[in-house]
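## Example record

The block below lists the input lines for one assembly entry, exactly as stored, with component labels intact.
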Amino acid sequence: MVSNLINANPVVYEKKDRRTRSAVNDVDEYVGEPIDQQEIFDHLRDIKDPEHPYSLEELKVITEDAIEVDDNQSYVRVTFTPTVEHCSLAAVIGLCLRVKLMRCLPSRFKVDIRVAPGTHATEAAVNKQLNDKERVAAALESPNLLNMVDECLAPSYAS
Amino acid sequence: MSLVDESFELKELQVLEGHADRVWSVAWKPATGFDGVPAVLASCSGDKTVRVWEQSPSSGSFQCKAVLEETHTRTVRSCAWSPSGKLLATASFDATTAVWEHVGDDYECVSTLEGHENEVKSISWNASGSLLATCGRDKSVWIWEVLPGNEFECVSVLQGHTQDVKMVQWHPNMDILFSCSYDNTIKVWAEDGDDDWHCVQTLAEANNGHTSTVWALSFNATGDKMATCSDDLTLKIWGSDLLTIQSGNGSAPWKHICTLSGYHDRTIFSVHWSREGIIASGAADDAIRLFAEDGDGLVLNNPSHNGCDLEFFVVDEPKYHLLLKKDKAHDMDVNSVQWSSAGNRLLASASDDGTIKIWELISLAGDQKPPL
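Predicted structure tokens for the full assembly:
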């Protein structure tokens, strides 16, 4: 394969064991259980990296610890680590995270997405874009980008 | 009339439903809402349409009178009525600005302004309705001249911002244009005579400016003060000398007066200054906040003047206080807040939850403190 990939040789990690959950993992606002770190991670772990046939969990782009959630405050913050410091697909990964959570969490949630500090050359710029809701909305109106995002999200919907 | 001593309530009058996606902006039609003329409001949405709502004289409730659709092919981001109320301009992510005219029972698109390279985010008419300004993600601000027969001619393309321009707003009295941007600055644009527009001032971080995206700006009734709101979680008040502005002689420099911080914990998307002097803000925490200026600029027991008990100064730096906070004004982010100019203390708000709400500011009977 011609190596135009940003990161041709990613490190692939083992997947963590999955905890079986008693409640159905759908959006159900009437289920009494507060939304926790594990649930958010379950929504995100199988998202495919835009460049490689591996999940964000396998590439350690996201880990459970990097998710902060406060159900009472309806707040979530996800910190992700791009595989390479100059990864130009960091914004796409961030967008995938945002879209998945937008589709899976109750609308009361406020979500912040950021790149792990020190892991990206243009961290501030990427973070600003990912958290500008108007920019995100406009980007998602682009069919090409939406397709790319949907492709990355597809494996994460399988229960 | 002093707003300091009264207490207020923001009463929810009505929820306007109908849009199928988030509502980005609302705009009250000028010269409506008083003297028997029913209030009219326009709203625009991610559902690619614009809705026009009219208040029924008998019941007082707002009904949707028109849906402006099948014109914009993407999100309609903002809308603005011409000062006469005859035209409605709408800005869209489809890179065009449409101009609509009320024809019979419906609205007809009479002109489409093209030129921006990508999403158009804001439009503003000048006070006389002779000029229209637009701005967008392509970092530029365009000025269009309004010609007879609903023709529009671009007279200037202003470059200067280094990022996405979020909003443009003409000064309420003078043909001076203001823009605010993702580049964290506010720019002031004026004409040198003969369609030569250029940036006469930039309000940046170094001038006590914002440290993140500036989403909106709004002038007070007299036009000598301006409020700006930002992703940096603050509202800033700026002032300029009224006489200098009005003399039109060169640029009247704007100075930072005051920063309202600690009141918001998420991005502030909208700010609007009422004719009475109440500043409303709409934010990403679903709340609406109202602020007013303290007293008349009298300062007592100013701690920087030791030993002076009852000394008063005409302060260059008026202070502002929170009048009230409406938590959970909507179920999701508040994108826009707009006071009606009709003097009826009506406020409209638009939200990601797909609704518009009409509020009335009610004064509660309170203790009247004796004047100082």
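The two ends of chain A are 31 Å apart (CA to CA). The interface with chain B takes residues 107-108, 110, 128, 131-135, 137-138, 141 of chain A (CB under 8 Å).
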